[in-house]
Amino acid sequence: MQQDLPQQLRLAQDLLQRGDSISAATVLRKLIATYPQSSQAHEMLGVISLMGGARQQGLELLRQAAALGPITLENRYRLGQYLLERNELDEAISHLQIVTSAPAVPFHFWHALATAYINRGSAVAEALDQALDACKATAPKEPDKQTALASVLIQSGRAEEGVAVLRRLIAAQPSYLPGFMELARHYMDAGQAAAEIEVLRAAMRALPGSEELHLQLARALEDQGDAEAAQRAYARARQINPRGTDSLAGLLKLGGAKAEDELIEEARSRLNHAATGDAEAATLAYALGKVLAARGEHQAAFESWSRANLARRNVTGPFDRQALLDRVDSLITGFTPLRLRQQRLWGSADPRPVFVVGVPRSGTTLVEQIIAAHPQCDGIGELAHIPMLAGQATAAVGRAIEPAALARGLTPALVQKLAQAYLATLDQRARQGATRVVDKLPTNFFHLGLIAAMFPQAHFIWCRRDPLDACLSMFSEDLAPSQRHATDLGDLGLYFRQHERLMEHWRSCGIAIHEVRYEALVGDLEAGSRALIAHLGLNWDAACLTYYARGGTVATPSRWQVRQPIYTSSVGRWRRYEPWLQPLMRALNA
Fold first, then answer.
1. Which CATH number belongs to the domain containing residue 513 in this structure?
2. What is the pTM of this model?
């Protein structure tokens, strides 16, 4: 029987060459039933499945083929790309490392590997730089390949090189929309709204009918605090595409209680239409809920947010509660008070970094703006660099997932290397001469042990808020899809309590954490602000009380609240929605 295997494989190949993929697939399925260890049969059937449009089935067959024996480089690349899209990054990297070890590797192989490294945050700097340099050396001149090259360079922290690629591209191709959009996104992520707006307006001169450009301009204008101009940009996008979801949602949110009835009815009509997909339904239902809440229709608003979160969860999948519990347990086990006390002798003595943490919607943006109004301080928004560096550190100690292994594997050299990498970004982003620089990524609370080792002189501020108000605010906000816990009241309660548990652990490790209670801060702004500035070791400056007048970019959902004097109307907001918050209350009290 074994002698039949090569013959049957040749038969399947002949059938394929004659265009009879159905008969070839039949032969291969019989072969796999008889010879389940045949990598060639699995690979050929996988290719046929891909050709026939059965992508997932085809790539799973390739996955089995690769586990059984060698497969072609192109098919292994396909498998790595598939795993990358599924966010199964460790396995993706293992396949992509194999294909890039061959001679004369093409650009798309290196690009996939660089992207996987960046997404995982798990490459030591040398491995990522090798992949990026290879991308530069092999990138074709086609605009889409140059844009892809620029994107990975920017995402990896080599922004200057990426921007140069994009500038050359749009100079040569002045009507190439993706090049403009990639450059605009870079400036948006860097908190440079003015530069982003300049790029978008330049693009509009060549592409005045682009809905995408007007939508991006509207968002940038919102970040700059120009509501009227943002409204005009959304309206223009809606003229270009009357069925656009984002323009309708943008106009609803900007309009608030004064939103036009026509827009409200259109949103309701689309939400009631069976053909409306989950992604569109989530966007519209979040926005409609905002309008209804502003009009005092609290039950209808809550129902709209519930619809939004259900739709969003259908898109993103459910939150993994056990993964959160395991992560917090591992951090507490790994970063013991004794170990962290030793590790804090290794880091940089730079006193500039200020980390404002807490759950989203707990007042982190307000605290950042108060500090940034001080003439010796600057705020650089929500940097993604600490999570990325944490991922790189796990790779450097040889473990990709377990935080306890990271804590045990840190060395003085590694801690110094991570600190210098972060400071390089801080130097690029912060105003020259600032003696305190605020990074307000709320979820850095997961990384306080690593940060304290990197920067023993850093300042830590924990923003706290009534858990019912904070969780309701997350539930009602159109947060990033990665915030899966925000789509379910029970998940929110668990997340909030685990965040508190971890923060108390960091405090028990000797990290000096200044606590800011949102309710106390808005109740007595001056007292709370003075305490903040004192914690930073600076002299008081009254400019902190008029933080709302400083201008600049605010790229968070609190962009409008922090541009006006302090108010207390958000305190106790949960009481308006109390009848529908029982699952949250149970989770918080569990």
1. 3.40.50.300
2. 0.79
